[in-house]
Design a protein that fits this description.
Layout (H helix, E strand, L loop, with lengths): L1 E5 L20 E2 L2 E2 H11 L4 E6 L3 H8 L8 E6 L5 H8 L8 E5 L2 E4 L2 H10 L4 E6 L9 E4 L5 E5 L13 E8 L13 H9 L5 E5 L3 E4 L3 H13 L1 H4 L8 E4 L24 H9 L4 E7 L10 H17 L6 E5 L26 H10 L7 E4 L2 H10 L2 E5 L1 H4 L13 E3 L2 H14 L5
Parallel strand pairs: 1-4, 1-6, 4-5, 8-12, 14-15, 14-17, 15-16, 17-18, 18-19
Antiparallel strand pairs: 2-3, 6-11, 7-13, 8-11, 9-10
Length: 438
């Protein structure tokens, strides 16, 4: 597999920092961001690299040469005029005769490229875009995917006011089949021009990851990325390292409790819930929703309708600068006999809490370390689920929650608190007391 690194931008957002050196040679932790990228590619056996260069190209070409001293082969396409992100790749189309990676030269990346490539091949994708949630979806271009991770639409930040969308953005790393290059415009942008234009005729998939991909294209972002690298956070976010998680119930924990919530207008965040999640987002904890949603099995709402409810929840969290790293829900229910029920989902499953399949799936997807992780909810089933999975538990307002589960099992949580905010504050205070770097 080959790779193309696009490093021909002028770096205008960097101000004086990029006046004399290209932004790709700006150092992160004492090493240029382009060198970090070359080393990552080499680690996964990708040693045939093209760089598209333009503004201040000579320092890049002088530093990397033919790539021999880095153990790779580097070739260059020199843009005589700015061609956007698609143009330079289009110019070397004949060189890209197999699936290939595209990286932006101002994004620090630390991720498992092997898993990304395997995902791309397993889905027989024309293009796979790395995506992830962010904490400001209202001013971001968003990527919409179905339950199979197939991308179904792109939403420009100029067009999304007053609507609800999942919080998922393009992270700036792609895997493409070689024939896709023939469809690229001679001048344009992958994210805003090309992918939206072909979403209905090509198989585009989104690869959601909590690994580290961060644009360092402004002075403030450069400072943030450099701090994350020096502290070791960048590496700790990689899938080769286990991460702790806070698993969070939905109804009565994130949003206001409404019996069998199935109407979009009933989705309303609890006071302080977004603030609590935002506080977790500033740590290295993953925040994962784990929720029973029997309203699907009961026929009160379709899977698509439930998805709209979750879009609103993510949107409301994003308005307050908070994000969920993952969402898992169980649509099943074991009780039968409701007149409107959806029989397809009417069976006893392993995912419905207090079953642990949702947590087990999240552990596999995110490489989560259960020791030191927590389950927070407002019902006995949440507590028992956490205990069954081997994590600590916190229950909100113990009046009903620490009584019994549906099968009569007695449970007792590690913490009984008034709200998600109090639970998070207590957990983080304990971490500080234990001198843990979160």
């Amino acid at each position: 597999m080959k790779a193309v690194i696009m490093c021909g931008g002028r770096g205008t957002r960097m101000g004086d920092l990029a006046k004399e050196i290209p932004k790709g040679l700006i150092e992160i932790g004492g090493k240029s961001i382009l060198e970090h990228q070359v080393e990552l590619l080499k680690k996964y056996g990708i040693v045939d690299i093209w760089m598209t260069v333009g503004h201040l190209k000579e320092p890049i070409m002088d530093y990397f040469g033919n790539g021999e001293k880095f153990g790779v082969k580097i070739q260059y396409y020199e843009e005589e005029e700015p061609l956007g992100t698609t143009g330079g790749v289009k110019k070397i189309a004949k060189e890209l005769d197999s699936d290939f990676l595209i990286l932006y030269g101002d994004v620090l990346v630390h991720m498992d490229l092997g898993k990304l490539i395997a995902f791309h091949k397993n889905h027989d994708a024309d293009a796979t875009l790395v995506v992830h949630p962010n904490d400001h979806p209202q001013d971001s271009d968003l990527v919409e995917m179905d339950f199979s991770c197939k991308i179904t639409a792109f939403h420009s930040k100029k067009e999304i006011e007053g609507k609800f969308f999942h919080n998922m953005v393009n992270a700036g790393l792609y895997v493409l089949k070689s024939p896709v290059v023939d469809e690229l415009p001679d001048k344009g942008d992958f994210g805003t021009d090309f992918f939206p234009a072909v979403v209905d005729k090509m198989k585009l998939f989104g690869y959601n990851t909590a690994e580290y991909l961060k644009d360092m294209g402004t002075p403030s972002r450069l400072e943030e990325v450099n701090k994350a690298f020096v502290s070791g956070k960048v590496k700790r976010c990689g899938k080769e390292h286990k991460r702790k998680a806070i698993f969070v119930d939905r109804d009565g924990t994130i949003n206001k409790e409404v019996k069998l919530l199935h109407k979009l207008e009933d989705m309303e965040l609890l006071p302080g819930a977004a603030e609590a999640i935002r506080k977790l987002n500033l740590t290295e904890y993953l925040v994962i929703m784990i929720s029973n949603q029997p309203v699907v099995a009961r026929g009160l709402v379709s899977m698509e309708g439930l998805d709209e409810i979750h879009k609103k929840m993510e949107w409301l969290l994003g308005k307050e600068g908070a994000k969920l790293d993952g969402m898992y829900f169980c649509p099943h229910h074991f009780e039968k006999g409701f007149p409107e029920e959806n029989k397809f989902y009417k069976y006893t499953c392993l995912c419905r809490k207090p079953g642990t399949l949702m947590i087990e799936t999240a552990v596999k997807d995110f490489n989560i370390e259960l020791e030191g992780s927590w389950m927070i909810g407002d019902f006995a089933g949440d507590v028992l689920c956490g205990q069954n999975a081997g994590v600590k538990t916190a229950v909100i307002d113990g009046t009903r929650s620490i009584d019994t589960t549906h099968d009569g099992t007695k449970v007792k949580a590690d913490l009984v608190v008034e709200s998600l905010k109090v639970a998070i504050d207590t957990i983080l205070q304990q971490c500080l007391k234990d001198d843990k770097d979160l």
